[in-house]
Amino acid sequence: MQTLEPAEQQARPTNIIPFIPEGDFYYTKGIEAYRNGKLDKAMKWLEKAIEKEPTEVIYHCQKSVIFTELGSFHKAIYILDDIIKEHGDSYAECFYMLAYNYSKLGYMHEAEKFANLYLEMDPEGDFHQQAEELLTYVEAEEEDDELWTTEEEDELIMFQESAFYYLEREEWQFALPILEEMMSMFPEHMLAKHEYARALFYTGNQKEAIRMEEEHLESEHVSVYTHVNLAVFYHDMRCYDQRDEHLRLLRNIFPIHEEQHLRIACAFSMTGYYDDAVDRFLHLDKRRVKGHASYYKWFSLAAKKAGNGEYAEKLWQEGSRRFNHLNKDDFYWLS
């Protein structure tokens, strides 16, 4: 996603006075950290800038950008909503950013609405090409979205974020009850069912997890996630013929959605097809997936096994800086 540029520096008097940094100084430091991929540090600088100048809209916009990069899409949306409520259409780029974040959460109707609003307000704006591509993607998506109420959408977002936290940390026992409640409240939300099968498998209910996914193969709900889960499940159970059948299908699938593409790349790494995995990881837009610890974990392993240990270590160190549960001293597990 395009980075917002720093505000112009205010003129400083030439006589010597005690140095008290204004928000502009902290913002510039935040932008520097952001461009160097140090998102945690960038966030700290931006929060200092906002503390100094809480009404400076550009600081809040950049904070939303960092939340987006971290995968905290609902937090980015809350910030952008506040800006629009206060300033109306004065900051057109916020409407595109809203569209982008909604698309990442799967709310295509909202994404389409805000992308169109952005193009109406600023048809030749900095994000017009991205907005048009997003609309093309929305039109191409073949999914029967539910028309959630605002309250239901907010609730689903919270469930998604909570489940994502535990799934990425492979804390399956904590993810299970969240996913069970999601399936009860949102029975048409298919991803929850695939994630539930994954959590079941890794908490010892392997037969039930496979049964669930095999049932999807016999219905219209078969998806990338079905093949990914079954490939990994059968690999772990040493049923290699069944595994290879699903991997063969995945080799011919190139999703538009980055999260699905990431899941395929991880599946190749988890099943020992490291060259395939590296090729898939290299084709990902890193900006869109670096909020996933699984990106760093399984890309590191694939790179190491494919013969690029130096790059693997670099990935692992970057991942461990972003995610505490990827201990920087655990690089040995890749050997």
TrEMBL record:
The keyword Lipid biosynthesis does not apply. PROSITE patterns: TPR. TPR repeats lie at residues 23-56. Keywords: Repeat, TPR repeat. It comes from the Bacteria. This is Tetratricopeptide repeat-containing protein. It comes from Terribacillus halophilus.
